[in-house]
Amino acid sequence: MLFALNTTVYFHKPSVYPQNRKSKNKWNPFAASAVLITEDHKQTEGIITMKFKYTSLYAAILTASLGMVGCSSSSSPTAADSSVTGRITGFGSVFVDGVEYETGTATVTKDGVPVSGDADLKVGMIITLKGSASGNTGEAATIEFNDDLEGLVQVNGLASGGSLIVMGQNVSVDANTNFESNDPAITTVEDIPANAVVEVSGYPDGTGNILATYIELKASDVADYGDEMETKGVIADIDTTAQTFMLGNIAVDYSSVSLDFVPANDMFVEVKFNADLTVSKIELEGDGKYGVKGEVGEDLDIEGMITNITATTFELNGQTIQIPDGVDITQYAAGDLVNIEVSVDANGDLVAKKVEEDEANDDGSHFEIEAQVDAVNAAEGTITIDGKTISIDSFNTIMDDNTDAEKYFNIADIVEGDWLDMKVAENADGTFSAVKVERINASDAREKVELSIRIENGVLTTGDQAIDTALGGLSPDAVLQATSLINSFANQGEDFEVKAMLDANGDLQSLMVEVEAAIAVDSAGTVTINGVEVTLEMLPAGVSLDDIAARDGQQVEVKMDLLTGTISAMKSELSGLVAIDATTGEVTVNGTAVTLPAGLTLEDGQNVKLELDAAGNVISMDIEHQSEMDGADSEQDPGSTTPEAGTGV
User: Fold this and answer.
1) Distance CA 126, CA 424 (A)
2) pLDDT > 60? residue 562
3) 88: closest CA among 217, 200, 213, 244?
4) CA–CA separation, 574 vs 594, rounded Å?
5) Dist CA 562 CA 402 (whole Å)
6) How far apart are CA 271 and CA 261, in angstroms?
7) H or E stretch covering 527
8) Strand partners of residue 284
9) What is the mean pLDDT of the chain?
10) DSSP assignment, residue 288?
């Protein structure tokens, strides 16, 4: 006898779900090899997954019916209420934190506005999802996406090792950041121009710094952007007399806007700006308390970045997490990405129950590959690329396709000959697992190879035959220059790490090295970095030898192409107190004159840390707030410099 159930069957693209690394016993009773008639009536042969939507009221009936059609008599896992805050890693439904959630009946909101299904969601967005989950599958009841920032790009220092400064906030990126552009001429985050408008989602610390998991270029110029801009953060350094406060690195003047709440330090707010950067509206964000919240006794899953660790607490995305006895986080440090399970105690505090390394964490075992696919084994969930067999776990691998904007991109869509940009983890057993997979155009493809180069008796050698061959095709002068520069950076006989880049044809394009070195200027005015004499031809466009010589004795971080002998990026750090000359308006930090980009302001007496590029331009900014320095619920000195009324930034 068969039971007639009021269920919905979802047929979707052929996809493979290898064993989740977080769960050894993956329950997937509906996987089968079959001929599938898809919605567009095209016949597809492969592995399919049928997912039945059901409630706990007839879960037992479903289990019984499975038994009638030959399934094991053992009971299925019990679905449990779940709340997860994390990055979307792919679609098919929605993949978050190693679980695939069906979204057919979910209520989805974007920045507080209801939207239709998951159509407006993108890989990399941080969402909060509530629903039920069992093993690696679940069903979403609600999905909320709220961006962290949508506003004006004031500085793009990414190419020089800095950050995007957006509305005064430092936005950093890593290999996992997903970038989408509404301007076909701008294809990378490094290409985003100043005065563009971007939307950012990621891991904020609440004080003006965000590690972006998703960036969308909304407009190449603010003049073409018709909407309000916005940023969120925690109020600091409030001056109720002048009616100003700091929001991260932004000085906000609220004297010209009406508020429906009384602002105070530590409140979590959203500030909206007009195109001319005047403040148009300030709203309390949620209940005004920063971070993820839940009911007493509720368990929550949160993904994010550790920003601080003490003996009894750590901060995740700037939110304090209690460390109880029995939970060990000594293996982690500030900057690590983790997945944590927390419970909400009677005080509303979040208490860690379990902490696991996020698979997207960028540690020493990770490397990048941009290369052509040699083979695909969808049944095994692996591809062969660059001579390596790499497993792709649909539940945990970040999957995206910038070739034809295929939203539901997974291993079933990859074919031999495709060009992929991949971040790969080397496992302890010598196998390889994909952390991020992005399909790219062949014309954009470059292969990055980590090399250990050795200088032996003045001869450059490496164990990578492909690179040996490429070097062999260069002119004698080019090989001599590369060898000479490598000798300058490495001692005789020692290994030295560089990153080689090949084009789509396998020809060597660059040999990049990143080093920390000291600038020295001798009596003749000759400038050297780590013993390498610097000439004007070696410097980035717009940088003079005088710019470099002015940093005599300073430590700098340099990115240099050993093949061409050119410096592609250089940055240094400047920390100290801000002083503003009341007559000339000149800004100095620790006695050094600083030229600020348009739209950025500093206040007299602030303690700041700036990163500067080779020409001395600001590429990132971090302000030490007074309340953080002295622990007081401070008000600014009425005599200090405040932003012009209504400017906001």
Assistant:
1) 22
2) yes
3) 213
4) 10
5) 31
6) 13
7) strand 527-529
8) 269
9) 79
10) S
- Distance between CA atoms of 101 and 136, rounded to whole angstroms? 9
| Strand-strand pairing, 527-529 and 532-533 | antiparallel
| pLDDT greater than 80 at residue 323 | yes
Q: How far apart are CA 503 and CA 184, in angstroms?
A: 21
What is the torsion angle, in degrees rounded to the nearest 10, for the CA atoms of residue 146, residue 147, residue 148 and residue 152? Answer: -150
**Enclosing H/E stretch for 65:** helix 59-68
Of 264, 280, 282, 251, residue with least CA distance to 641: 251
Q: Are strands 587-589 and 366-377 parallel, antiparallel or unpaired?
A: unpaired
Contact 324, 350 (CB under 8 A): no
- Tokens 């990399």, located at residue: 124
Upper half-sphere CA count for residue 182 (Cβ side, 13 Å): 13
Residue-wise pLDDT for 239-251, tens only, equals: 999 999 988 888 8
Which of 187, 203, 176, 180 minimizes the C-alpha distance to 424?
176
Under 8 Å between Cβ of 470 and 506: yes
Residue matched to tokens 């007839």: 58
Q: What is d(CA 433, CA 383) in angstroms, rounded to the nearest whole number?
A: 10
Q: What tokens appear for 103 in the block? A: 């979204």
What 8-state DSSP symbol labels residue 76?
Answer: P
Distance CA 530, CA 538 (A): 14
Our CA dihedral for 277, 283, 287, 288, rounded to 10 degrees, sits at 40
pLDDT tens per residue across span 18-61:
333 333 333 332 333 333 333 333 333 333 333 333 333 333 33
Question: Which carries the bigger pLDDT value, residue 302 or residue 603?
Answer: 302
Neighbour tally for 629: CB within 10 Å: 10
- Return d(Cα 271, Cα 285) in angstroms, integer: 9
Q: Is residue 497 scored above 80 in pLDDT?
A: no
Q: Is the pTM of this model over 0.85?
A: no
CA-CA distance, 239 to 551, in Å (whole number)? 37
CB–CB of 220/193 below 8 Å? Answer: yes
Other beta carbons less than 10 A from residue 567's beta carbon: 20
Q: Residue 533 forms beta bridges with which residues?
A: 528
Taking residue 130's Cβ as centre, other Cβ atoms within 10 Å add up to 19
**Those residues with Cβ within 8 angstroms of residue 66's Cβ, 6 or more apart along the chain or in another chain:** 29, 76
Q: Which of 497, 486, 546, 541 is nearest to 521 (CA)?
A: 546
β-pairing verdict for 107-110 and 113-115: antiparallel
Over the stretch 262-296, which tens digit does the pLDDT of each residue have? Answer: 999 999 999 999 888 889 999 999 899 998 988 89
- Residue 443, pLDDT > 90, answer no
State phi, psi for 66 to the nearest 5 degrees. -65, -40
Where do we find the tokens 């916005």? 230
pLDDT tens digits, 117-141:
888 999 999 999 999 988 889 999 9
- Pairwise CA distance, residues 251 & 239, whole Å: 11
Assess contact for 373 and 335: CB atoms under 8 A. no
Reduced to 3 states (helix: H, G, I; strand: E, B; else coil), residue 349 is coil
Question: Which residues on adjacent β-strands are paired with residue 48?
Answer: 32
pLDDT of residue 57: 32
Q: Report the C-alpha gap between 248 and 246 in whole angstroms.
A: 6
CA dist., res. 35 & res. 481, Å (int): 59
CB of 575 closer than 8 Å to CB of 609: yes
Determine contact, residues 319/348, Cβ cutoff 8 Å. no
**Amino acid symbol at 8:** T
